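>> Question from a student workshop board

For tomorrow's exercise we were told to take the sequence and the ligand below, predict the bound structure, and bring the output to class. My setup keeps failing. Could a helper post the expected result so I can at least see what it should look like? The ligand is pyridoxal-5'-phosphate.
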Amino acid sequence: MQEKLNQNLIDVIERIEKARIAVDRHRIVRLVAVSKYSTQEEITALYACGQRAFGENKVQDLKAKSEILESLPLEWHFIGSLQSNKINALLSLNPFMLQSLHSLELAEQLQKRLQKENKALRTLLQVNSAKEESKSGFMPEVAQEMYCRILETCPNIKLCGLMSIGAHTDEKKMIQKSFEQTYRIFESLQNKGAKTLSMGMSEDFELAIACGSNCVRLGSVLFK
Ligand SMILES: *Cc1c(COP(=O)(O)O)cnc(C)c1O
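>> Workshop helper replied:
Here is what the output should look like for this input. Compare the format with yours to find the bug.
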């Protein structure tokens, strides 16, 4: 398993580098290994290959894995749809980042809780750029305005950029359109401190990088 994961990681990094260098030699692209379908042994094995950032989409899974692997200096990203009744559980795990801030209501509840506990949390605003009902996130038309509003009203939420899931289709043009739209919003927020643009999964990460992503979230291509 160790050898296989090591090779997967090498292959993935090579593909990321190739996509990155083709568009921008100066951009750094972060890799978050999405471990939601993986075991603690697989996470430990990938850690041994040098990977530090991992992503989970369920609070109970993040809790179980981060507690078991507590002795490793891992950086945990929460990428799932957070329900308000799980806010406390998530905050008690001190994740590195919440990538999926998907509503104003959640922002307000999060702010209250963070303020009470005197904590801050790095966060990305999730944009539903493909406007798919099955996905959460802010509609692209309101994303910029909502980003600014949260910046102003939720001081304990450290907004540092955007996250988006590409359109769910085989049509490359559609996926590209959704990435490009998110990039335009990201660009308009750079003077507000937006630094991270998290776009790209196993099936579309090279396209996402070509469209401006600087953080890819990869699961199946790494843990296959
Ligand atoms: C599962 C998941 C990923 C990784 O998906 P793969 O296709 O396995 O790379 C990335 N982002 C989010 C939000 C996910 O839920």
